[in-house]
């Protein structure tokens, strides 16, 4: 197989990857989206499908549910460690802003998953099982700490190992060492980390090696290639071997507004050290071997008529949904009823999303707006902090084809910032009829990061409004997504019905 990178073509950040017999599994950060904790499956490391999710709801907080004026944008489930040990799967991660660390265990990748907590907050942790049966976490930012766990993994072992094994110089970095992944390979302990020194223009992959688990680790930055894409860094991810003895790394590449996309990097070993790519350069052509030739993968992106009785796994809600205010209709279609008054679509619960695909993609959907009331908006959005949406707005009993945009971030936009301002209406045209078909086209190649809007009437496409610029920022900390949205700015209770979602 040639020219396979980036492998998923969409936002699956902070990957960790393992192999169990002939099957590869990859966990990725899903933050505030529900269901969360996605695990992908592959038989060749190049093609992937969704295997399962770990949870429907994680923290049970108002922010997790977009309630009481709170939100979890930019927060939630971060940078998980996926391991398989003595016939059990383990996933460990923190939820940003909470006090403990989450542990999920199962004997099958599809679950059921048991959820427990590890006492203590272990940022970007890597779970490691030693040969003597003891378990450890390697975690932290700038100072990377090795912590021995109690036998039941409930927290630190009393009197156990707890020491810093790698330190960074805070004055010399934009991002200190983090994103730990620890392995024992060839009799030595191999620790990989993401890094962003001030002297470089991109994030890099660093490796430290030790003959002892608790030190002394010696290492440096080993891989700072961009794969030929706009100077964007490639780093943070797992190492995995194949049944025929080859090694690969699955790392993510910063890719602008579409998000952080996994890439596959061949790894060889020289004097006990990993060599990423061709002496630090990601090759254009990579040969992979399938352990199940001819296997047909379920797609990561789908069109949908919403007539199957369940929400397909390619979809995720923007936060934990309010099940009382959405329904799949017997005749087909997704009905979303507004449950609260919102200033803008980022406050709206029950927005159903799919990732956008690199380097370009488009989607359209038909919306029945006959049950919308004054102040209601429903349509298709590009969901991020600087969002945009095309759809129908009702004012004074009249319906308008409308584009609503957030062109600039509101004041104080950082992780978990709360946008309480209405969006800017940049296009409005009176609409006749109860239904409308609206679409969004996205272009990401060479960091163009732009969406345009269109409507389809009687099979004819017409442009709507002006192009909208997208950004990757820490406010949402994820790639932009298509979203089916409905919200009320005057009174709750309006309903929109979405049918015939087409993804191209």
* Rg, nearest Å: 23 Å
- Considering DSSP H and I runs of 4 or more, what fraction of the residues is helical? under 10%
Helices and strands: which structural class? mainly beta
Task: Determine the strand fraction and express it as a percent band.
Answer: over 45%
Mean pLDDT equals 96
| Continuous helix count | 0
CATH hierarchy: architecture of the largest domain = 5 Propeller
Largest sheet: 7 strands, antiparallel
Stated plainly, the CATH topology of the largest domain is called Tachylectin-2, Chain A
Low-confidence runs: none
| Assigned CATH superfamily of the largest domain | Glycosyl hydrolase domain, family 43
Written account of the structure:
The chain has strands at about 15-20, 25, 35-40, 50-55, 75-85, 90-95, 100-105, 115-120, 125-130, 135-140, 145-150, 160-165, 175-185, 190-195, 205-210, 220-225, 235-240, 245-255, 260-270, 275, 315, 325-330, 335, 350-355, 360-370, 375-385, 390-395, 400-405, 425-430, 435-445, 450-455, 460-470, 480-490, 495-504. A hairpin with a 5-residue loop joins strand 18 (about 245-255) and strand 19. With about 500 residues, it is an all-beta fold. The protein folds into two domains: about 15-220, 5 Propeller (Tachylectin-2, Chain A), CATH 2.115.10.20; about 315-504, Jelly Rolls (Sandwich).
């Amino acid at each position: 197989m040639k020219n396979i990178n980036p492998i998923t073509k969409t936002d699956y950040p902070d990957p960790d990857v393992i192999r169990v017999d002939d099957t590869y599994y990859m966990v990725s950060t899903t933050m505030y989206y529900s269901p969360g904790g996605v695990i992908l499956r592959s038989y060749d490391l190049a093609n992937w499908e969704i295997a399962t999710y770990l949870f429907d709801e994680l923290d049970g907080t108002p922010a997790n549910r977009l309630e009481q004026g709170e939100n979890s944008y930019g927060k939630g489930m971060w940078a998980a460690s996926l391991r398989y040990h003595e016939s059990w799967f383990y996933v460990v991660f923190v939820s940003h802003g909470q006090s403990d660390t989450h542990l999920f265990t199962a004997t099958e990748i599809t679950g059921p998953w048991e959820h427990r907590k590890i006492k203590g907050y272990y940022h970007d942790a890597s779970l490691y099982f030693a040969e003597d049966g003891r378990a450890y976490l390697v975690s932290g930012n700038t100072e990377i700490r090795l912590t021995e766990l109690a036998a039941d993994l409930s927290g630190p072992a009393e009197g156990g190992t707890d020491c810093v094994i790698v330190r960074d110089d805070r004055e010399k970095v934009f991002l200190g060492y983090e994103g730990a992944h620890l392995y024992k390979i060839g009799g030595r302990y191999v620790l990989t980390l993401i890094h962003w020194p001030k002297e470089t223009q991109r994030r890099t992959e660093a490796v430290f090696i030790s003959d002892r688990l608790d030190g002394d680790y010696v290492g440096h930055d080993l891989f700072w290639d961009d794969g030929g894409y706009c100077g964007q860094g490639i780093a943070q991810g797992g190492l995995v071997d194949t049944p025929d003895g080859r090694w690969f790394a699955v790392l993510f590449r910063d890719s602008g507004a579409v998000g952080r996309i996994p890439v596959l990097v061949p790894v060889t070993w020289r004097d006990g050290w990993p060599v990423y790519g061709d002496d630090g350069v990601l090759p254009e052509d990579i040969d992979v071997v399938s352990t199940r030739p001819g296997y047909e993968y379920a797609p990561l992106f789908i069109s949908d008529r919403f007539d199957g009785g369940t929400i397909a796994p390619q979809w995720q809600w923007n936060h934990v949904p309010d099940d009382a205010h959405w329904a799949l209709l017997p005749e087909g279609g997704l009905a979303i009823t507004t449950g609260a008054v919102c200033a803008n679509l980022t406050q709206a619960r029950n927005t159903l999303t799919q990732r956008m695909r690199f380097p370009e993609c488009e989607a359209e959907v038909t919306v029945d707006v006959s049950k919308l009331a004054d102040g209601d908006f429903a349509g298709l959005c590009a969901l991020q902090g600087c969002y945009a949406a095309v759809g129908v707005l009702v004012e004074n009993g009249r319906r308008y084809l409308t584009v609503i945009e957030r062109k600039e971030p509101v004041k104080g936009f950082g992780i978990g910032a709360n946008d309480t301002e209405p969006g800017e209406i940049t296009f409005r045209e009176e609409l006749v009829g109860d239904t409308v078909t609206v679409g969004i086209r996205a272009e990401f190649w060479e960091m163009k990061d732009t969406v345009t809007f269109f409507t389809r009437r009687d099979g004819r496409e017409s442009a709507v409004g002006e192009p909208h610029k997208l950004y990757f920022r820490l406010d949402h900390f994820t790639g932009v997504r298509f979203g089916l949205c409905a919200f009320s700015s005057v009174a709750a209770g309006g309903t929109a019905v979405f049918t015939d979602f087409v993804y191209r």
